[in-house]
């Protein structure tokens, strides 16, 4: 037997009287939310939650797209850096002119890396097989190899590397490699010419002549500089294999050699025979042979080293400071200091104080 529910009904104690011509007021209506049932409320709340989630997902996708574009932009600029195992880096795509002889600056570079780390990462291009192709930084990578071998420190098994975006042409990759070295004040015309020769030999570059190679590689250099590089390239093409210290040839001597070699087709063989007969043991001895040839003189035997001529004496040295290695050259009335740093960014007054302190230190008595 079901039970009946009993509801209490409150009746007014006295009847309500309304003025004539007026209607009784309806009870106050409840808000719409109060009138909705539990199901309608749940559906509304779920819709609001879905809408908020969709907006959040859209914001996340927009941020991811922005970050992806920023990553690609930085990667194209070579500003995305990672630590890459040395064994994963190859050097097959670009031809380099590197001799097996000891690099006198490599020890200084290694000491700098041990002291402050590698401040300028190498540049690599990712390959399809998961390896990387070296674009810039042969000496830096070689220094890491030697440090790993000498110290056994596993931290040198990985090298900081900027990731170059894929898709660059072979010519563009060569330009990246060259432009980094082109800003060095001490890079010789012979070194630039040798790379131009190797570039012309690479069938993938499309350069058919030395002139094409020089124009491709050194497009950012001035016209006169490109002419000098071409002249040196012609000299090296004729006798380069017989030269041990080509990078020491000054510009004027290189131009004189080019003229002498062009004067007679047999002169190249004459110079090669002279170098083979004399077998100069050092840089100055080889330059002595080249000067004699350029002047049209026959060189029969190496001369003993002579003292510097008056007016051309100079002192050359290198020193390591916290900011890097400084190359110095001092001569009568002139001193030059060069290092990999943009000194134009330094405040003028700070430079003036540094120069004044430098000369003040020179004048101090021991």
Task: Provide structural commentary.
This protein has 366 residues and is of the alpha/beta class. Helices cover 47% and strands 12% of the residues. The protein contains twelve helices and eight strands. A hairpin with a 5-residue loop joins strand 3 and strand 4 (132-136). Helix 3 crosses helix 4 and helix 10 packs antiparallel against helix 11 (283-294). The protein is elongated.
Task: Produce a short descriptive summary.
With 366 residues, this protein is α/β, with parallel strands linked by helices. The protein contains twelve helices and eight strands. It has three domains: 112 residues, Conserved hypothetical protein from pyrococcus furiosus pfu- 392566-001, ParB domain (Alpha-Beta Complex), CATH 3.90.1530; 136 residues, no CATH class; 45 residues, no CATH class.
Indicate the radius of gyration in whole angstroms. 39 Å
Q: Which class do the helix and strand fractions yield?
A: alpha/beta
Any idea how many domains? 3
Low-confidence stretches: 301-311
How would you describe the oligomerization state of the chains in this entry? single chain
Report how far the terminal alpha carbons are from each other. Answer: 123 Å
The level of helicity is 40-55%
Helix/strand order: HHEEHEEHEHHHHHHHEEEH
Strand order of the biggest β-sheet: 1-5-3-4-2
- Note the main sheet: 5 strands, mixed
Beta-strand segment tally? 8
Number of helices in the DSSP assignment:
12
Percentage of residues in strands: 5-15%
- How confident overall, as mean pLDDT? 78
């Amino acid at each position: 037997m079901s039970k009946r529910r009993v509801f209490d009904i409150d009746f007014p104690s006295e009847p309500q009287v309304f003025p004539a011509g007026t209607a009784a007021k309806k009870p106050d209506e409840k808000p719409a939310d109060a009138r909705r049932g539990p199901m309608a409320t749940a559906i509304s709340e779920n819709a609001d939650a879905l809408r908020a989630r969709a907006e959040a997902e859209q914001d996340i996708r927009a941020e991811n797209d922005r970050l992806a574009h920023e990553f690609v932009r930085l990667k194209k600029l070579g500003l995305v850096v990672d630590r890459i195992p040395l064994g994963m880096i190859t050097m097959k795509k670009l031809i380099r002119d590197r001799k097996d002889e000891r690099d006198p600056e490599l020890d200084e570079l290694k000491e700098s890396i041990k002291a402050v780390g590698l401040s300028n990462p190498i540049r690599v291009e990712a390959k399809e097989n998961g390896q990387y192709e070296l674009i810039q930084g042969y000496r830096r990578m070689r220094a890491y190899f030697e440090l790993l071998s000498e110290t056994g420190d596993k931290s040198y098994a990985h090298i900081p590397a900027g990731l170059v975006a894929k898709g660059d042409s072979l010519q563009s990759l060569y330009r990246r490699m060259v432009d980094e070295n082109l800003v060095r004040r001490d890079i010789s015309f012979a070194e630039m010419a040798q790379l131009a020769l190797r570039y012309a030999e690479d069938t993938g570059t499309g350069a058919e002549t030395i002139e094409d190679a020089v124009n491709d590689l050194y497009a950012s250099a001035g016209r006169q500089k490109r002419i000098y590089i071409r002249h040196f390239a012609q000299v090296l093409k004729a006798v380069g294999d017989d030269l041990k210290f080509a990078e020491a040839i000054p510009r004027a001597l290189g131009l004189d050699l080019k003229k002498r070699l062009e004067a007679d087709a047999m002169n190249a063989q004459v110079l090669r025979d002279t170098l083979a007969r004399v077998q100069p043991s050092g840089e100055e001895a080889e330059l002595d042979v080249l000067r004699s040839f350029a002047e049209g003189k026959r060189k029969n035997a190496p001369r003993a080293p002579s003292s510097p001529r008056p007016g051309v004496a100079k002192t050359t040295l290198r020193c390591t400071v916290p900011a890097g290695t400084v190359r110095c050259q001092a001569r009568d009335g002139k001193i030059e200091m060069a290092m990999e740093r943009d000194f134009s960014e330094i405040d003028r007054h700070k430079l003036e104080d540094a120069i004044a302190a430098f000369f003040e230190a020179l004048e101090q008595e021991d």
